[in-house]
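Example (one chain per record):
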Amino acid sequence: MPEKKASKKPAQKRVKKPAKSSTPKLNDRQRQFCNHLNRGMSAAEAARKAGYSESYANREANQLLDKPHVAEYLASLREASTTDAVADGAEVRAYLTSVLRDEIQDVATGGKDLDYIKTPMPAAERTKAAQELAKLNGLYAPTKVDVKVTEYSRDWLKQALAVVARYVTPDELRQIAREIPRFDP
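Predicted structure:
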């Protein structure tokens, strides 16, 4: 009988795992958040623009900024976008601050042949600079009031009270009204 050779399994090659990428893995919303933030938006506004919930934008923005891979990506964006040709966020903030503090003087001329005259920055321009700075720093957010919902709610409540009034005596209705805290928007 012929001898059987012991079959050896071929040696498995060890495959090296690829080195970690230098660019952190972000999902699309995180990447959009960083891009908007890099363009000078406030963190909350950048979160809203990236698609995060309107009501939780501040919280989401703070949580995103605490994540190391988001901070790393944001730092790489800021490093890549620092060129002399484009004003960065710090330069814009510095300029608006100097306008606000009246450190820059406006230039006016009396006509074709007159020299330029340096004058103080008008109050309206200083106010506008303060508003823009507040927006950039996330301190200014316009409030929205949804009047349609309020009017609809008021009409619905009137109808509901009319139905309740059919089944409840006036004394019982007064007692119910005393127990409900006053709503004063």
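Caption: The chain has a mean pLDDT of 76.
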